[in-house]
Amino acid sequence: MWTLLLVACSSPEPAPPRHEARRHVLFVVVDTLRADAIARADTPVLDGLGARGEIVPTAWASGTWTVPSMISMFTGMPVRQHGWNREPGNVEQFPKIPPAPTLAEVLARKGFHTTALYANDFLDPDLGFSRGFETYRKSIDSQMPDRVASAVREWDDGERHFLYVHLLGPHSPLKPSEASREKHAVDPAWIAGNPLGFLIGQAKRNQEPGVRDAYAAAYHAVVEDTDARLGAILDALGPHRDDTLVIVTSDHGELLGEHGICGHGWWVWEELTHVPLVVDGAVDLPDRVSLASIPAIVTRSLNLEHEWPTPWDATLLVSQRRDKLAISVDGKTKAIWSDDGVQAFDLPADRGEAKPLPVSADLVAARERFEADVPPGTYSDEEVRLHDTTLESLKALGYLDGAE
Ligand SMILES: [Zn+2]
User: DSSP string of 225-278?
Assistant: First the structure.
């Protein structure tokens, strides 16, 4: 015992080889993009990015709607730790995001110029999402490549830049391009009914024959349009492309009729928790990643020192929504705890999570360890009312209708 200890003390682990850090960072979140969509749809840009870098086989979003999930990606804290576990629901005001350091704040302190271009209204600057960003600008998906190009034109020699682009992508309402709509055989009548596009509320109600299949087809059509848009965003980096760490992921997935549900409210099924994670220029990543690791993955890949609550090489998968807590140790067996009890699933044998099994001692122990290591947080009492314009566009997106 003593001998072993002495050997361990006199021969410390060799430091890991220093990663060759890139100069800039492009962090793209495609809202509502489930992991299997990039296998079902043609996504040559994401495939090419993964061929240059890495596609992480199993990445889990920490929450299954935008605000709690993005707080985890900004602060490195799982939902339990940041405590912001509210629902979009029929409310117009929310607590601010927790005061913990965000990725943008840390990078700004390290000398980066920071720019955010976001399309999802829930990323309201008044909630605190703009903290650390020099420029925080609402945009729409179709304008993003031009906005990125004009931001990049301002970059001067010697500067370092962090650019966060949040696309709505295949979030409802869906309005695929004519070419992808035709390719996926989506009847234009589904889209013509609303000037914004095909609303998930139609598929949720499921009162019209074929509506869910049509919505799923339109979803994959928009995934292909978004992939092309991502290609234009990467091209907009111009001469900085090869010197930019690129990370593409999503804040949560979408149910397209599985479990009899459409949308992303209230559950932690794989269609919601499992999202793509494609990186180019990052440190080598484990084959399963919790997205609360994103800030640590960025700073580790840039060789910057910062202690985040979740380290870059953490492999415990955790996702939380309301009373539901999903945990997986290996990406294969998963347990979901809720007010109704606990169920476990063998994912390789039961992708649809339809055959619940008794929970294993390993998963129970993993939950106990997680809860012992991660103190529960509470969000701030300070609530802010969203802007009127934000509320209007959220209503148009199908929120604030009491349904989700
Ligand atoms: Zn979202």
Answer: HHHHHHHHHHHTTGGGGGGEEEEEE-S---EESGGG-EESSS---HHHHEE-EE
Single out the residue of 75, 122, 63 nearest to residue 103, CA to CA: 75
Cα(170) to centroid of ligand 1, in Å? 10
List all residues 6 or more positions away from 92 whose beta carbon is below 8 Å from its beta carbon.
385, 386, 391, 400
The Cα 330–Cα 191 span in angstroms is: 41
Q: What is the pTM of this model?
A: 0.93
When mean pLDDT is compared across 273-282, 287-296, 297-306, 393-402, the lowest value belongs to 393-402
Q: Cα–Cα distance between 236 and 172 in angstroms, integer?
A: 26
In the predicted model, is pLDDT for residue 265 greater than 90? Answer: no
Could you tell me if 108 and 299 are in contact, meaning their C-beta atoms sit under 8 angstroms apart?
no
Rounded distance from Cα 321 to ligand 1 centre (Å):
13
Copy the structure tokens of residue 214. 């049509």
Task: Fill in the DSSP letter of residue 291.
Answer: G
DSSP secondary structure string for all residues of 327-339: EESSSSEEEEEET
Q: String of b and e for 64-97 (b: at least 16 CB within 10 Å)?
A: bbbbbbbbbbbbbbbbbbbbbbeebeeeeebbbb
**Distance in Å, CA 319 to ligand 1 centroid:** 14
Model pLDDT, residue 395: 80
- Structural domains of the chain ordered from first start: 19-316+385-396 (3.40.720.10)
Q: Which of 157, 139, 158 is nearest to 148 (CA)?
A: 139
Q: Look at the chain and count its residues.
A: 404
Q: At 39, list the tokens.
A: 């296998």
Ligand 1 mean position to 180 CA, how many Å?
A: 22
Instruction: Judge residue 15's burial from the number of C-beta atoms within 10 Å of its C-beta, 0-12 exposed, 13-18 middle, 19 or more buried.
Output: exposed
Which amino acid would we find at residue 10? Answer: S
CA dist., res. 250 & res. 248, Å (int): 7
Tokens for 58? 């199993």
Neighbouring-strand partners of residue 93: 385
Q: Give residue 4 CA to ligand 1 midpoint distance, Å.
A: 50
3-state SS class at 75: helix
CA 74 to ligand 1 centroid distance, Å: 14
What does the alpha-carbon distance between residue 24 and residue 153 come to, in Å, rounded to a whole number?
A: 14
Distance CA 74, CA 295 (A): 6
